[in-house]
Design goal:
The chain has helices at 13-20, 30-37, 49-69, 84-92, 104-114, 119-133; strands spanning 2-6, 26-28, 75-78, 96-100, 138-139. By secondary structure, the protein is an alpha/beta fold. Helix 2 packs across helix 3 (49-69) and helix 5 packs antiparallel against helix 6 (119-133).
Length: 146
Amino acid sequence: MLIVVTGPPGAGKSSHIRAHAKPTDIVIDLDLMALAMAGPGADHHDHHPALLRVVHRARQAAIHEAEQVMGTVDVWIIHTMPQAKARARYKRLGARIVTVDPGEAIVRQRVRDMRQPAMEAVVTRWYRDRRKGGSRPVTRQASRAW
């Protein structure tokens, strides 16, 4: 099965997967991939544009390969804001969409405390798009102690 986990930055998407995925599952998490490809001491969320370019290509390749084995293992993909083309692809693949959103106030505080300032704009865009897009399945979990 394909499980796509969405939500704003700082919502707890990675924590949700850690709490629910099995050791045999495949997890495609851009931040974890970037950390694996970055030099020692790299920030968990503030990635150099050159690194991001490589990681985005690797992520697409990983998703393509994971699609080939979805019948034998569960595949988890973190996708903060999938656009229409990605949503259509996930629908064709029969994905389960999980939206992790502990609430805008909590997310904004987490981003202020733990992320680079540019993430504020991503949070604003995520909530604006969510308000336009209507209802989606939401997991209102605290995710972890911040």
